[in-house]
Every structure is written in C-alpha cells, then in structure tokens.
Design goal:
mainly alpha; two-stranded antiparallel sheet; 4 helices
C-alpha cells in the first residue's frame, strides 16, 4: 500500500513517514543535482548541519554589499597585499 494518494491536484499523505535525504536536501535549498557521499546517516547529518545554500548566498551578498559601501573590502585587500609584500601574513591578530 502506498503512503499517499492523489486527489484533486493534491497529494494526500495517508501514513506518517520519515523524509528521504533528497526531500531533506530540497527543503534546505540544495540543488537537485547536488551529490552527497556517505551512508544514509552521514548524508542526513551533512544536510542537517549545513547552512542552506540560498541563505548562505543571500548573507554573503549582503556582507559584500556592506563592505563595498564602507570601502572596507578595498582596505582589507590593500592591507593583505602590504603584508604579502613585507613577507609575512597573519591570519589571527
């Protein structure tokens, strides 16, 4: 017996069930062609621990926009170039 039936343009769930890893990935906005590696448990952990790709994209665009507005990005690039020219780079200060 199936867990669903189709009725008036809708799928009706008949029985409760766990979501498949692909359904979980889609909820997290992963593209359908994204490939996960590992066991089913590993894949579920990867999906559950991930920042949703579309959320990460939106946040990164806003951070870039903010940095561009404040010219901070140019300053960071210039400072990094100076450190490389002087022969040292510090990651943590």
């Amino acid at each position: 017996m199936r867990n669903w039936r189709y009725e008036k343009n809708f799928f009706i769930i008949i029985k409760n069930r766990a979501l498949t890893p692909r359904e979980l990935a889609r909820l997290q906005t992963f593209p359908d062609d994204f490939v996960f590696y590992g066991t089913s448990i590993n894949i579920q952990q990867q999906i559950g621990n991930a920042v949703p790709p579309l959320l990460a994209k939106k946040i990164s665009l806003k951070v870039k926009e903010y940095l561009d507005d404040k010219n901070i990005r140019k300053l960071i690039i210039l400072e990094t170039k100076k450190k490389f020219q002087n022969g040292y780079v510090t990651i943590f200060q």
